Amino acid sequence: MMASSNWFDTQTILDGIRRWVEIETPTEAPEQVNKLVSLIAEQYRDLPVTLERIAGVDGCGDHLVARSSWGQDRPGILVLSHLDTVHPLGFIERLPFKVEGDSAFGPGIYDMKGGAYVAHHAFHALCASGDRSPLGITHMFTSDEEIGSPTSRALIEQEGRKAKYVLVTEPARDGGRIVTARKGVGRFKVFIKGVPAHAGSRPEDGRSAVRELANVILALEGMNDLERGVTVNVGVARGGTRPNVTPEEAYAEVDLRVVSLEDADEFVGKILALTSKTDGVTVEVTGGLNRPPYEKSNAGASLYEHAKALAADLGFELIDTHTGGGSDGNFTAAHTATLDGLGVDGKGAHTHYEQLYVSSLAPRARLLHRLYQTLR
Q1: Residue 333 three-state SS
Q2: Dihedral sign, Cα of residue 356, residue 357, residue 362, residue 367
Q3: Phi-psi region of 155 (alpha: psi -120 to 50; beta: other; left: phi over 0)
Q4: What is the 3-state secondary structure (H, E, C) of 129-161?
Q5: What is d(CA 359, CA 367) in angstroms, rounded to the nearest whole number?
Q6: Residue 28 burial by CB count (10 A; 0-12/13-18/19+): exposed, middle or buried?
Q7: Exposure pattern of 176-194 as b/e (b: 16+ CB <10 Å)?
Q8: Rounded to whole angstroms, how far apart are CA atoms 130 and 148?
Q9: What pLDDT is stored for residue 5 in this prediction?
Q10: What are phi and psi of 112, to 5 degrees?
């Protein structure tokens, strides 16, 4: 085993990330996710951990929970990482792993295989030096974050409640910023039913579901309030069958983002209360909040201050930010000190140019290592 001074060798870390990236893991390909889970489980062999592998359900892959053999009798550190990516299978042909200057490219490398690997690597480094962190460490790898964590949420909340601190390895933002607040996320489906008719010869018999969908879209788009940080996006809309038939059915899918729980209650209520403006047409809305807002709390703020001091010792400045994207940190922040965005720096999450910055690997790994060593 290498001496712990070499643990933070950039090339070693990058080689490890490459192995994880080259196993593609779209959320909807559970057998691929499980292949990576098996590799990670293998990489814990010989380390002082107990592994629990939770079988995937509802078309998602397995979850893996690695618990340090020490410190499990009291609240400790929970590390949250997801292994699934948004890129479809085969995307690696379009975006192969490659390094150009300070950028390493690959599907999911920034969101968030880089961060997941770096936290795992920092735990390895801790064990290699024979250290035992003051607190137990539990690292959870999940398979479904990119679709809203439907099969892992209960597990995350259960482990989150047991923990004293939660560290989330989502990517850093805008030059290495750490995340101390995130918007809550709501998801809704709108089903509209009208009355079909021949649009040419009997238009008066019809009631257009698509026309009503237009009313609904305008009502939803009208809820946007950027000053309050409220965004409403109609991301999917469809309806009708043929140009000469008054459309009987229409459908939409809607994304809501809010900063606070008060706003969540207000806007979820408004969206669910949408009604039809047209006689003979029905509007039905289903859905709700699938991630509560992650508001910066006192506990979260003091955890951030601690991380900021550690980063300064390591020679870099840790600035905090808030973001509109949701993460698994949203599920823990309300009751446990949570710090997010501890993963790698880079850009292009969910795009065809996704990349991490190689220069961020050693500093981020060292920061996680120091958090493990110093949190009490």
Answers
A1: coil
A2: negative
A3: alpha
A4: CCCCCCCCEEEEEECCHHHCCCCCHHHHHHHHH
A5: 14
A6: middle
A7: bbbbbbbbbbbbbebebbb
A8: 38
A9: 59
A10: -140, 35
Q: How far is CA 172 from the centre of its chain?
A: 12
Whole-angstrom distance, CA of residue 306 vs CA of residue 112: 23
- Catalytic residue annotation: 84, 145
Residue 297: per-residue pLDDT: 86
CA nearest to 108, candidates 122, 120, 91, 93: 91
Structural domains of the chain in order of their starting residue, each with its CATH number: 10-182+294-374 (3.40.630.10), 184-291 (3.30.70.360)
**Dist CA 248 CA 197 (whole Å):** 8
Q: How far apart are CA 24 and CA 35, in angstroms?
A: 9
d(CA 111, CA 105): 11
* Spatial CB neighbours of 90, under 8 Å, sequence gap ≥ 6: 24
CA atoms within 13 A on the CB side of 291: 31
Q: What is the mean pLDDT of each run of 10 residues along the chain (376 residues)?
A: 71 98 98 98 97 98 98 98 97 98 98 98 94 96 96 97 98 92 96 97 96 98 96 97 97 97 96 97 97 90 96 95 92 95 96 97 97 97
Find, among 88, 61, 65, 90, the residue nearest to 78 by Cα.
Answer: 65
Q: How far apart are CA 37 and CA 27, in angstroms?
A: 13
Write down the pLDDT at residue 1: 45
**Is residue 165 within 8 Å of residue 307, measured between CB atoms?**
no
